Amino acid sequence: MSAAVSSSGLFRQPDFVRLWSVGLVVFVVRWLETLAVGVVIYRDTGSPLLVAMMTMLRMLPMALLGAVFGAIAERVDRRVALICTVVQMMLTSVALTALAYTGYLAVWHMAVASFLNGLSWAADNPVRRAMMGEAVGGERMARAMSADVASNNSSRMLGPTLGGTLLAVVGIEGASALCAALYLFALWAAIGVSPPARHPASTASFLARMAEGMAVVRRDRRLIATLLVTIIYNVFGWPFSSMIVVLGKDNFGLGPIGVGILSSTEGIGAFIGALSAALWAKPRQYGRVYCGGVILYLIALMVFAQVSNPIVGGLALLMTGVGGACFAAMQTTIVYLASPPEVRARVLGILSVCIGSAAIGFVQLGVIANIYGAVAASTFTGVAGLLAMALTWRWWKLI
User: Fold this and answer.
1) Total structural domains within the chain
2) What percent of the chain has pLDDT over 90?
3) pTM listed for this prediction
């Protein structure tokens, strides 16, 4: 893959476009499924905890296997690994569609599907995003990640609205069938990616290579600080997204279509945030954009939880989108640029483990919401997140 691509020419680089397209499909399906599954489970069970558990199961493979996938990614053809992950997600959607059409779909089926799709999500950083970095070169990585995050957040405008509409019109089976069809396009794009360049792989054992990646992180204060902020966001910030369905129904009295439209405002804000990061963020500002995005997200989620007016709520979600996008655009960029090329996949795998810490946050939030309600749970997690950022300032000020 070419290592040098002009900032204005990202989308003239075929491999970048194909990898970006795979990500776009995966993002659209992820948000579509998250809303559709959340609405169906809350409708059928009335349990905020079960709603949160579905997203927790998507995150669990990151926490358990992120570092493992990072080490494996150095020894396999990443193009083949990418194709396999897309096929696995497509087959999962086909299975859900069949179960829904035949009337056998149950909560545990959706739980298993969430975990299986989480396996593919855990491989995204050390496989697809590492390939994107090789396609565009380190000097264009921030713009490439901003473009990738922008597509993720554009999908958050489309995915929830589409999911809510499909649920209202044709049910969960229609939503799952569309997911399977979209994965066919992603598979076509993945097959067209050029085989990535091979870096000399360490001859050490599998466990030794994982330990080597951890040693690189321990020696770099910037990496430590970046991963620490990642954990704070994923434990105290992002799990709030699972409560949007619950708060939309309980606070605002919205149905599936209304909840989908409301959720889409977060995607609009995220698109704005990612675009702003791509156009104006300079390397010396990456840390401020990264940490500032987390703080903005935590403040805005508390506002959303406390209001009863859907317009004000939509504006608060808009700001969570801006903050989340600024965080996400800089997260992989900072880690990628700070990591030596020979261990980059392993460090990105460790990043996936830190992202997987969200599983703790989803369980925590779901349990509190089940006992005290979604408003109290969301407010608590926002306050706790801000307190965690304040207590760790001496580390993340280094980013």
Assistant:
1) 1
2) 29
3) 0.71
